[in-house]
Amino acid sequence: MLHVSRPTGSIILLELDAPPANALSLQLRAQLVRALDEIATDDDVRAVVLTGRGGVFCAGDDLREAAVRGDGALAAVEDFNRLMDWVEALRVPTIAAVDGWCFGGGLELALACDIRLASDRATFAASGVNIGLVASATRLPRLIGAARAKAHLLTGAQFDAARALFDGIVTAVHTPGALLRQAMKLAEAISSRAPLAVEATKRVIDGKAYVEEELPALIASGDHQEAIAAFMGKRTADFRRK
């Protein structure tokens, strides 16, 4: 259901594998939570790439499962929202590599990541209104502005990777064959930077901290001293997250 691998010592690859749509069933959500919990406590991890197998990113909640939840429906939605918050709050940067369908909760999952790349065959939809719910109404306007977001959120209409790039939902579009490779290349670039500074920068961008709060510890860090020493010695810095 969820494949977890470590292509390098500092990068974790998470692959959703629940054919045909990689829908986020309760089982798949639980597996994702366990993986995130392990990543959060592993100081060697510096970046995460999240993607889907089978030419699909994620088509959202498992509607077949939702149809029989009964009195547990609200709890299931709240559980889903907590999972999205956990993805967003993860200590290290996350990169969504979006291929194929990215609908509803799948779009919310991509939006909870820090950076999104897409294949040229990716198809998106903020489809909460299509199933009588509210979805992505916070993260999407925060990312691309209210006016552009409303065109997606209020219609639930599908749109392609070119529109996602134009609106700023994704930062690059690649062929399906190159998508994961480019996501890994980006993750490698991030993981080569001073990890304490990367994590602090993410917290500041996300409004979880202020620059003034982060600077004292960063200036005193071994990584900052290593960066200066590497510059003076004309060599590559060896950051140790210290």
UniProtKB/TrEMBL annotation:
Pfam families: ECH_1. One of its GO terms (molecular function) is catalytic activity. InterPro entries: ClpP/crotonase-like_dom_sf, Enoyl-CoA_hyd/isom_CS, Enoyl-CoA_hydra/iso. One of its GO terms (biological process) is fatty acid beta-oxidation. Belongs to the enoyl-CoA hydratase/isomerase family. This is Enoyl-CoA hydratase.
